[in-house]
Design a protein that fits this description.
The complex is a heterodimer.
Chain A: E1 5-7, E2 10-14, E3 19-24, E4 31-37, E5 44-49, E6 55-58, E7 61-65, E8 71-76, E9 85-92, E10 99-101, E11 105-110
Parallel strand pairs in A: 2-11
Antiparallel strand pairs in A: 1-3, 3-8, 4-5, 4-9, 6-7, 7-8, 9-10, 9-11
Chain B: E1 4-7, E2 10-13, E3 18-25, E4 31-37, E5 44-50, E6 53-57, E7 64-70, E8 73-79, E9 87-94, E10 106-107, E11 111-115
Parallel strand pairs in B: 2-11
Antiparallel strand pairs in B: 1-3, 3-8, 4-5, 4-9, 5-6, 7-8, 9-10, 9-11
Classes of the chains: A mainly beta, B mainly beta.
């Protein structure tokens, strides 16, 4: 079946550092979503991407829809302690609700 | 606040109990979903409803029974569950099933279920 590989699985960074994570697949996607999930809470949508090459920002977050349509990237600039959480991607290949989800990147920020 | 509200937030039940999870969305969306989130696994789609009609049952055991009385409310009825059913159950909604340019999926805060 289709799979999304998300990396890294976890990251420990210092406050103020920039963070990069990505999702890759062997399948071609036409929609990417990026979420953040805090412990015991539901995922919160950060950014949605619909076109290959699209670069979209939301505050200190920037996400890109890869040109090959098989990957997507999320960058966080100047990290702060409240960035701690699990970030995961979701992709749809079919233009419908059938999203495939990554396993998440656990981010910890050291003050 | 995402506009999707789930109750209860936490539920502990025995294997012989019957309980229900409730979801309400205030976004005017037409599609609603139940997902299961287990530790270290990707989200698993369980059920999909569009305009109160079930469009997908993703090979979910019959001990999970969904109900969608209207486009704003979704229930998940639980009976004779197993300990391996313990997980975070997430409700979500989207504008429609087709997602070109409007594909945002909004999740509730989840119901943490523990089966003893």
């Amino acid at each position: 079946g289709q799979q999304l590989n998300q990396s890294p699985q976890s990251m420990f960074i210092q406050e103020g550092e920039d963070v990069s994570m990505n999702c890759t697949s062997s399948s071609i996607f036409n929609t990417w979503l990026w979420y953040k999930q805090d412990p015991g809470e539901g995922p919160v949508l950060l950014i949605a991407l619909y076109k290959a090459g699209e670069l979209t920002s939301n505050g200190r977050l920037t996400a890109q829809f890869g040109i090959t349509r098989k990957d997507s990237f999320l960058n966080i600039s100047a990290s702060i302690p409240s960035d701690v959480g699990i970030y995961f991607c979701a992709g749809s290949t079919s233009g419908t609700y059938k999203y495939i989800f990554g396993t998440g990147t656990r981010l910890k920020v050291l003050a | 606040e995402t506009g999707v509200t789930q109750t209860p937030r936490h539920l502990v039940m025995g294997m012989t109990n019957k309980k229900s999870l409730k979801c309400e969305q205030h976004l005017g969306h037409n599609a609603m979903y139940w997902y299961k989130q287990s530790a270290k696994k990707p989200l698993e789609l369980m059920f999909v409803y569009s305009l109160e009609e079930r469009v997908e049952n993703n090979s979910v055991p019959s001990r999970f029974s969904p109900e969608c009385p209207n486009s704003s409310h979704l229930f998940l009825h639980l009976h004779t569950l197993q300990p391996e059913d313990s997980a975070l159950y997430l409700c979500a909604s989207s504008q429609d099933l087709r997602i070109f340019n409007t594909g945002e999926l909004f999740f509730g805060e989840g119901s943490r279920l523990t089966v003893l």
